[in-house]
UniProtKB/TrEMBL annotation:
Residue numbers annotated as active site: 238
Pathway: Carbohydrate metabolism; D-ribose degradation; D-ribose 5-phosphate from beta-D-ribopyranose: step 2/2
Native source organism of the sequence: Sulfitobacter alexandrii
Residue ranges constituting the Carbohydrate kinase PfkB domain according to the UniProt record: 18-279
Residues noted as binding K(+) in the record, renumbered to the chain: 232, 234, 268, 271, 273
Name by which UniProt lists this protein: Ribokinase
A Pfam cross-reference name: PfkB
GO cellular component: cytoplasm
Regulation: Activated by a monovalent cation that binds near, but not in, the active site. The most likely occupant of the site in vivo is potassium. Ion binding induces a conformational change that may alter substrate affinity.
Catalytic activity: D-ribose + ATP = D-ribose 5-phosphate + ADP + H(+)
Chain positions recorded as ATP binding sites: 178, 204-209, 237-238
Length: 291
């Protein structure tokens, strides 16, 4: 089972002819709203990859729709707390080439307490996964608790903070970074990725695929990306991570889980949206990735 300490956001998508520069005012050609947040995206992706997922987080009184949507997508919500503040949200700007920038308001995501986390993880079992990102609070407490319980800890270190990552390195089993974040972490620690005290490191490379670094064997393997038409890159990394952890939780070998996750990511970038459009296993099985 996967216990995901993660954010829940209302995503506001603004379609733009190009991403605005400093001081530039630009008119959006389209506005759409949907469920998002890195945490919610990963929970939905893992659930659609046939894993059992319990989300740990918080929403405001205005977030009842988000709880219902998560339930519809197969995510368990018993440990999502409704509190007296605004639900987190993100304003996402997407240009004609599918690139994006994002402005976040954390809202209820930054009201998650250690008590909420502890109450959830008290129900976890040894061997379960704890999955975390950086859009909530409580990661150090959650990681420490998970290790005491014999859980496996996976950390998708975004939005990236080198300080946040370094203080958790000794409690992480699997670290997921993009190429820029990996470079920043190596610079901050003065240590190459293969020498980190983390069993497995995954570096996503966008259209160039990803790298898997096994620090135990000092081996590295590259996985090329699957060819696809890019419409919107928002949520693709979250989809990859959710599918990756789900595959591992279901007993797949790392290489198998990475291949599955890359297929899910390839389908995701061809779609417009976040949690609401994450592909399920049938989408992947029906798609011809060799074409």
């Amino acid at each position: 089972m996967i216990w995901n300490l993660g954010s829940i956001n209302a995503d506001n998508f603004y379609r733009l002819p190009h991403l605005p520069g400093p001081g530039e005012t630009i008119a959006a050609t389209e506005l759409r709203q949907g469920l998002g947040g890195k945490g919610a995206n990963m929970s939905v992706a893992a659930a659609r990859a046939a894993a059992r997922v319990m989300h740990i987080g918080a929403v405001g009184q205005d977030g009842a729709w988000a709880l219902q949507r998560l339930l519809e997508y197969g995510v368990e919500t018993a440990h999502i707390t409704v509190i007296d503040t605004a639900t987190g949200h993100a304003n996402i700007h997407v240009d004609a080439a599918g690139e994006n920038n994002i402005v976040l308001f954390p809202g209820a995501n930054h009201m998650v307490t250690d008590q909420m986390i502890g109450a959830a993880l008290a129900e976890a079992s040894p061997g379960d996964f704890l999955l975390m990102q950086n859009e909530t609070l409580g990661q150090p407490f959650a990681a420490e608790t998970a290790k005491l319980l014999g859980m496996r800890v996976a950390y998708a270190a975004a939005p990236f903070s080198a300080e946040s990552v370094t203080r958790l390195l000794d409690r992480i089993d699997l670290l997921v970074l993009n190429a820029v974040e990996a470079g920043q972490l190596e610079k901050e620690t003065g240590t190459e990725l293969r020498d980190l005290p983390v069993a497995d490191v995954i570096v996503t490379l966008g259209g160039d695929g990803c790298r898997w670094i096994s620090t135990a064997t000092h081996e590295e393997r590259r996985f090329p990306a699957f060819s696809t038409q890019v419409v919107d890159t928002t949520g693709a990394g979250d989809t990859f991570t959710g599918y990756l952890i789900a595959g591992l939780d279901r007993g797949m070998k790392m290489a198998e889980a990475i291949e599955l996750a890359q297929k899910a990511g390839a389908l995701m970038v061809a779609r417009q949206g976040t949690a609401d459009v994450i592909p399920d296993l049938k989408d992947i099985q029906d798609h011809d990735f060799g074409a």
